[in-house]
Amino acid sequence: MTSTLLWALGALSSNLLGALTATTRSNHEQFAASLDSKAVVYYPGSEQFIQASARWSASQTPHYEMIVKVATEEDVQKTILYANENNRPFHTISGGHGTTSLINNVINGVGILMHEMNDITIVDDGSAALLEGGVLNGDLIAYLWSHGKLTMSTGCDCVGYIAPILGGGHGWLQGRYGLAADQLISARIVLANGTAISVCEESNPDLFWAIRGAGHNFGVVTQVKMRIYDREVDQDQWAASGFVFTHDKLEAIFALANEWLESPERPIELTHYGLFALNPDVDPLNPIVMMWIYWQGPAIPSKYTDPLYALSPVAVDESVTELPEVNSHIFANRDGASCAKGLSRALVGLSLRTYSLPALRKVLNIFTALPPEFRTTVMMLEGYAKNRVEEIPGDSSAFPDRDEKVLLSPVLTYPKNASLDATAREIGEKIRNALLEGTDGKLRAYVNYATGVESMEELYGYEPWRLEKLRRLKNEYDPFGKFNFYAPIT
């Protein structure tokens, strides 16, 4: 389908949806009256508007002149048409976690708040689920669990579920099932011209390929159909051990982690999650190093914990939970500190195949010298199992980094203060550059942790065919760059 035809269809859909006259379109109240009875329009100054526009990071401040809490796909279509007809940018809001600086380019925009669209329905004899565009990750985990099901979910309860899929979606079960994007069977998408279409392997297959890894560029996803799986009794429990060490154990800890990463028989059940943080109660001068070991099962095999105990940890936290509680270990449950709003945050991520011990030492030294305003910053070192991720062909979706084994990113956290934003980015880039030392020098930046300064190659891969295909599809489905506020294809 060519871009010309799509935009012509968009014009037709304006009539089919009962689009308002030019005079009426300029009137917010009459626009609001055209929406579903459950939809609400919020305006600046109201408490609802303040709550709806609050983001996980206070340094991302898109400027909205109105926020539409949509209730149906048709509401999304009407809102996009309204924004286009009034020459306003539009921007979708789900979990509000994206920290790219490009979000600040939304000026006098129309926010599309998805929270009312939160239905989950199990279909196809229990092998799939239909999720609306506003479903949060934690809500999906809990719903499926209560119905004897699960799927590949991400590591934070308060993020939207669908938005991370658009960039790939790492998480606890990816070793068994693949990325969150790999679970996608089909999707309903409202394009930049207001047209609503279905995408899957049989219908619009190129776009289906693109939204699994570069999906922020193409439309508002109103519904997805995802693969789900039966809970297995022997896999229900998750054992977790969190080890706290002083900084001098850094090299020994991550030498062990490299052994796990490089093992030809890497267990599908094993995930590790490292953290650097400043804790003056443990060490008043140097960062501490934490290493969480997760095992899908009732107990972690001693071959993974004994070497860590042998390094004389300062403290160990051991527990056995089920999947809905796993995110609480990193305070990423709905009420946890990792989900709290009000602070400014910046993620500066990259993917690597192994840990460079000298590079990690450089990062630890950067932490030692952090300015006072940034002393609550942490370094995330996410080592999810990759078994199934690596089995799926790299050309099956737009996600480019199936061979990378660890995801590293500082979460720079500081008080809301615009004068500190540039410093945060500078520190983040310094850390990322340190981590690139000893590699091939090519930055592979995870799209969901994009900062807004990365190149197309750094976000979407270095293969020319992949970039050419993405550019062609961007020109076809979003020729005027309406979806350029997050990791845009240029």
UniProtKB/TrEMBL annotation:
PROSITE patterns: FAD_PCMH (PS51387). Keywords: FAD, Flavoprotein, Oxidoreductase, Signal. Residues 60-231 form the FAD-binding PCMH-type domain. GO terms for molecular function: FAD binding; oxidoreductase activity. Pfam families: FAD_binding_4. Residues 1-21 form the signal peptide. Its cofactor is FAD. The keyword RNA-binding does not apply. InterPro entries: FAD-bd_PCMH (IPR016166), FAD-bd_PCMH-like_sf (IPR036318), FAD-bd_PCMH_sub1 (IPR016167), FAD-bd_PCMH_sub2 (IPR016169), FAD-linked_Oxidoreductase (IPR050416), Oxid_FAD_bind_N (IPR006094). Belongs to the oxygen-dependent FAD-linked oxidoreductase family. This is FAD-binding domain-containing protein. It comes from Cucurbitaria berberidis CBS 394.84.
